[in-house]
Amino acid sequence: MLTTHRKKSILATLKKDGLVIAKALSESFDVSEDTIRRDLRELAAEGLLQRVHGGALPASAAVADFGHRQQISTDGKLAIAKKAAGLVSPGQVVILDGGTTCVQLARHLPTTLQATVITHSPSVAVELVDHAGIEVVLIGGRLFKHSMVAVGAAAIEAIAHIRADLYFMGVTGVHAKAGLSTGDLEESYVKRALAGCAAEVVVLASAEKLNTASAYVIAPVTTANIIVVERKTSRVLSAPLVAQGISVVRA
Question: What is the pTM of this model?
Answer without folding.
Answer: 0.83
